[in-house]
Design the sequence.
């Protein structure tokens, strides 16, 4: 008997198959994303990956159309609140116009509460803003190729 035959292994192992996809030789659709559900629909919202889940976020409503990320950053920024991290005005994807609200985040709960109390009802741009605690939790998940295909097919419809 040939002893080399008994120790021979297949080159087609699950590890080598997965490795080939990671190296760009196959269609790997798996990714990290945020899945949202509402109104009987499920969709992917990768913009929430920009926010650290450990930060304290404020929802800033009733923003005028002229409010930009910079103006929001100046109103809620590090000059007044040292733990300020980020400010973002939410915009319509097709027209790039403001949707009338935005978010601001802080690392320190004291600055979060202070900004909430001091800025609620104050003018940012040409309107007084309404502030609430942001309710959307940032829960990133790793989805597999099948779920990614399902979500991608819904986007195209």
Sequence:
């Amino acid at each position: 008997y040939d002893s080399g035959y008994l120790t021979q292994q297949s080159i087609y192992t699950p590890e080598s198959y997965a490795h080939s996809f990671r190296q760009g030789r196959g269609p790997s659709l798996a990714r990290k994303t945020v899945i949202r559900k509402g109104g009987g629909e499920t969709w992917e919202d990768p913009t929430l990956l920009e926010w650290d889940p450990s930060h304290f976020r404020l929802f800033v409503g009733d923003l005028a159309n002229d409010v930009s990320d910079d103006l929001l950053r100046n109103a809620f920024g590090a000059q007044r609140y040292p733990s300020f991290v980020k400010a973002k005005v939410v915009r319509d994807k097709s027209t790039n116009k403001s949707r009338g609200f935005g978010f601001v985040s802080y690392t320190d709960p004291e600055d979060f509460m202070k900004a909430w109390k001091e800025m609620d009802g104050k003018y940012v741009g040409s309107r007084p803003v309404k502030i609430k605690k942001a309710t959307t939790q940032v829960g990133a998940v790793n989805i597999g190729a099948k779920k990614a295909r399902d979500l991608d097919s819904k986007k195209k419809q």
Notes: The first helix runs from residue 3 to 7. The first strand starts at residue 31 and ends at 33. The CA atoms of residues 21 and 28 lie 6 Å apart.
